[in-house]
Each structure stands twice: as structure tokens, then as C-alpha cells.
Amino acid sequence: MYATPETDDGWLTKVHGHEGEALVVEAHFNLPRRFHDLVRGRESELVFAARSRLARLGINITPLGDPVFNGRSCDLRLAVVAAIHAYGMAEHLDRLVVPGLAVGRLVFCPQDTRLSSTEIHGLIRDNQLQVPTGFSLDAHGYLILRPQQQVFRFRKPLTFDEVTAVANHADGKELLNRLQVRTAVDNIELAPMDGLVTACSMFLHRHYVVLQNLDDSLGFHLQATVLDPVSTRGTNVYLEFINRSDQLIVNPTVAATVHEATRLEPEHRYWYGGPRPQPSAAEPEYRALLQVFDRLEASPLMTGDCHRLMAATTDPAALLRGAAPDLLCAREDNPGSPRAAAEHYPVPADNAAPLDQLPDGAAATLLLGYFPNLIEHTEICAAALRRKIARLCFRRPSFEHGVFLSDRDHGRLADYEGLGLEVYWCNEARTHVVRHAFRGLRGYFTTPDKLDRFRSALVFAIYGSIKPLSDQEITHTERLIENLQGLFGNDIGILTGGGPGSMQQVTNTAHRLGLMAGSSFIETMDQETNKTADFYQTFQARSRQSRQRWFEIASFHIFLIGGVGTLEEIGLTLTDMKLGVIEASPVVFLDSSGGDFYWEGLKTQLTRMVRAGRTPSWLLDNILMTSDPDEVPRFYKKTLRLG
Questions:
Q1: What integer pLDDT is reported at residue 618 of this predicted model?
Q2: 11: exposed, middle or buried (C-beta count within 10 Å: 0-12, 13-18, 19+)?
């Protein structure tokens, strides 16, 4: 895993008042111990980077002097101004800029991690760094970035409530993506004394980029100047420019330095709350946990009617050695409805739930025979708020549906993530213990040793039929994935529906090439789930529509030939792009059958829909339909405008 050496976002502690158009404020930053030790004596190489969502609102935040350090924290005086007048933020500024507002971070940008022009060019040539087409490199190691021919404007003037939601809510960027729409232009015209937001395409895997205002004759970039590894991947890498002159600027550019990111050594945390004490294969770890479950479920408390195990321990190592847990109880099955559940699980006379027996702050490990039902979920959330439990491990996802989780279960997993609970699954079908991990808003299960790789991989979603592939289709599929690896390197993952046919072939090819492969399994009657996915999630049959949301972790979508299921996935993907739910990235349709072109009818229909004004033309511009896998990387480079 690679990351920018930085602090968390600092927050405003004081608003001093206006100096002209700017609000002068004070911000406070905590310095993590590792970061503090890294920058000690080199504080002059720190850069303040404003929050990108504020810059996209046209708000510029610039430092007034150097940070004032006080041990493991520092304070910084800042000026806040509504720099892009056309966005209308000036009227909201006084109410928005208040103590508590997160404003940005401090980033360590040392000269000894900065790359030369020769080193940058080598990375670009070897596809380890993808930058916009038309880039330049000067003799001093500055990478000159040119935006795409598009600008972003708001659909309507923003209300204060909308501005507040964008700035302060966890999903504020999602709201901003819906409010701020792009428009294609022949040339980007930067009006005198005003500004705009545009974008470029860039893919950073192991480096971070720092934008530099060397000369504002071609535009002055706002203070959101640091582009991070992993999170900077896509077509909409936003650039915010202002024109500080009284003359028109056409097609602004910005200079940038490229730095080696910090390599983070992964900390593999396991179900017992810490790192593995000594090297061991995954299966013995699984067997040890399974034996614990078997022993606890053999308790006299477990009867034919009561077999929902709940056990908790503050010493998992002792539990592995055969000790008794701190808490052990069993319950009947959930009768189905919340009202019936309340009647089925009457509140004890002392008004205490089982987890109330644990002391506050115990950070216990909770073991469950089944994934939590409604009553257990409410108790777990209450206990988590008081840090009575720190992690939970379940044995079976569902009493009725085997390994498949429901929509409610996925909502509960999101609650546990929000509460800071680690969730593990002792998966008997795969004979391993996996941890639940989020990428953005979506979570998957993976083994702890693959967690960091899962979170950093550039993901391609590949859809297709469950029918067996011909030799030619196998060859074309392998060539396709080899081309993806050639263009984007080894830090990629392939996500499929997890069934046989093309999905299994894609998984096999990804593993042969040393790439990650993931699956989003659906409960069906006509296919078996593959047993080799590195990361996966499961969905009950009635969760079919929501399952598509989990493909949002993919940056790109590729459709091999398929049936009505694939057709449904095509419609959902294109609709999500149209509505701004996911980024409008290139979409590939590959026909490797060797007969009449499989996608010809869909191509005709989409063209007709664009002509009738029922589909935006830019969507069609982002689509490639081909029978040649070698055309795919060329299409990506052209559509993404990569150099």
C-alpha cells in the first residue's frame, strides 16, 4: 500500500474576521507520531493542501505564514476566499466558515523523494504512471499538465444547505458529483478575475503529485494541490483555476512535481485482535477457530430450539487454549418480523442484554453462530458505542440462505464499519477466515494478508455468460487481460459475478498473471460459486438489484458476450453513468465468438437513442464495441486522453 506522507484534515478553531474579501482564520492540525518523527527538523518542506471539495466549490484557502508547532500538533493561520465568483459562494462564506470546519492537511514534500524528468519519463514509458495526453516535462523535473476540453458547472445556484452538506457530510463528494455537471468545450476560456473547474485523466499507483503555481500567466491553481496515490485514478481528476489578470486566458495549464509515495507495511490483523504470533498457513488458523466454534456450540445451552450462539471473550488466545469465554448464551431463531422478534426475545427482568455484562472499554471479541439478526444487531451497536466489543466473528451468514447475505445484512455491515468494529467470517465453504473491508461505500471479504492489496488495486469489472467458452473466446479473453496488465501494470484487480464460463476464465487468467480476482456472488440455481476469488461478497436472490452497487468499486466496465443477465448489467451500468452515480469511464463490449458481430443490435439501438435525444451523446463517445482485444488499450488511451 502506498500513501502520501500527510496529517489528517485540520479544522478551524477561530475566525478572526474579514481582511478585504478574505476571511482570516486559525486551523489546528494533529501530527501523528510517525509523521512528527518523519518531518522533525524539516518543517520547511511541509505544504498545506486544501480540501478538494472546497476547491471544487470555488473556495480557496491559502496559508498566511508558517505553521506554529507545539509538540505533536501545530496551528496555521489561513485566508479563505470565494475565488470563483461565478459559483456564488461569497454569500455563504460567513456561515460556512465556522470553528470545526475541516479545511485541509499538511503534506510532507521532501526534495529527496522528488523525481527528475528522466525518472518521470521512464515511469510513463513503462506504464507505471499514466498522465494526460499533451503533457510536457521540462529540464527541472516539472510535469506540465493540460486539462481535458471540458468544464464543470453547477446545475443551479447552490443553497446554503447544499453547500454545508458538500463541505461537512461524509458523502459530500457524492452530492457534489451530482450537483456539478461537465460540459464539453472546444477551448477552456478562463475569464479575467474569475475561475472555473476542469479536469484531466491521471492514474497514480505509487507516487503523489504536487501542483505548483510557477507562473500564473496560464492560470493560477487553487490550493488543493496534492494528488494522492490510489485515490487519483480516473478521468475526473479535478483542477481548479482562477485568472488573476485582466486579460482572457485560454486553455490553462499547471506545473507539478512527482514524488515517491510512502510504502506502508501492512498490519495483518486477525480475528483474535492482533497480528499472527508466528508464520502459519491460513487453514490451520481456520481449523483452530472452527474448533472453538464447535466446542462452544456443544454447550448444554445449545438445544434444538436455541442454536444461535453468542459468546464473548476479552482474551481470545486463552479461548484458543480451551478456556471458557467471558460470556456464553444461546437464542432461538429470529421469527422474522421486528414485532415478533421483540415478543420472541423478551427483555430480561433486570433490563440487561447479554452484552451488558461486559465492562465498558473491554474491546472484547464476539463470536456468533450466525450473522446478527435484528435484536442481536441493536445490542451489538449499543455495545460497540461503549467499546464493550471491538470485533465480531460469525460462522454462518444465514440460517435460510446459506452463504448469501441479505440487503439488511449489508446495511448492518455498514453500521459496524461506522462504529469501528472489525468483522470476520469463518467461511466453511472456503476453509478460511476472511475480514470485511470497505472500498468507498462498498465492502468485500478478503483474507487479512490481501487486505491492503484489495484496497489499492485498480479494479476492472468484467461481465459475461456462464456458458462454456470456445478456444477462440479463451484466447481473446486472455489477450484482453494481458493488455490491461500491459497498460496499467500489476496493481489491478478483476471483478466478476463469480460464476462459470467467461467469469471463471477471467478469474483463472487473472491468477495466472499474478493479478487479484474478485467475485460478487448472487444466490442462483444455475451456477456454482468459484472457490478461488481473492475478495468476494454474497447476495441473496432478492438482493439482485442492490448487488450491482457493489460493482461501483470498479473504475472500468467490460462486457463479454452474455444473455439477459448481462443485458441487465449493461443497462444498470450505463444508467449509473448517466445519472452520475458512478464516473463516466470508458465501456468496452468485446465479441470473441467469431460469427456475426454480437453487439450490432445494441450498437444500433444506442445510436438511435442518442439521435432521439434519449441518451447523452457523450455516453456513446465512451463506448467501444470490438472483436479485437488489442484495440482495447488504444481505446483507453484515446478516450482517457492519456499520454
A1: 86
A2: middle
Question: Average pLDDT of 536-563?
Answer: 92
Residue type, 331: R
Backbone phi and psi for residue 241, each to the nearest 5 degrees, phi listed first: -115, 150
Burial (CB count <10 Å: 0-12, 13-18, 19+), residue 568: middle
- Average pLDDT of span 554-565: 94
DSSP state for residue 642 in the 8-state scheme: B
- Nearest Cα to 580, choosing from 147, 155, 168, 179? 179
pLDDT at residue 299 in the model: 86
Instruction: Cite the DSSP H helix spans in 531-629.
Output: 544-547, 564-579, 600-611, 617-621
The values of phi and psi at residue 178, to 5°, are -85, -35
Q: Distance between CA 52 and CA 60 in Å, rounded?
A: 10
How many other C-beta atoms are found inside a 10 Å radius of the C-beta of residue 26?
17
Contacts of 500 (CB under 8 A, 6+ apart): 466, 468, 527, 528, 530
Across residues 5-10, what is the average pLDDT? 96
Lateral strand order in the sheet of 220-221: 180-184, 150-154, 195-203, 233-242, 220-221
Q: What is the 3-state secondary structure (H, E, C) of 492-508?
A: EEEEECCCCCHHHHHHH
Q: What is the 3-state secondary structure (H, E, C) of 250-312?
A: ECCCEEEEEEECEECCCCCCCCCCCCCCCCCCHHHHHHHHHHHHHHHHCCCCCCCCEEEEEEE
pTM of the model: 0.88
pLDDT in tens, 317-363: 899 999 999 999 888 765 555 455 455 444 444 446 889 999 999 99
Residue of 135, 104, 149 lying closest to 254 (CA atoms): 135
What b/e sequence results for 223-244 when a residue is b if at least 16 CB atoms lie within 10 Å of its CB, and e otherwise? bbbbbbbbebbbbbbbbbbbbe
d(CA 204, CA 526): 40
**Which residues are paired to 215 by β-bridges?**
none
pLDDT band at 267 (very low <50, low <70, confident <90, very high): confident
Average pLDDT over all residues of the chain: 91
Strands 143-145 and 189-190: unpaired
User: SS3 for 622?
Assistant: coil
The 10s digit of each residue's pLDDT in 166-190 is 999 988 998 998 899 888 899 999 9
103 close to 9: Cβ distance less than 8 angstroms: yes
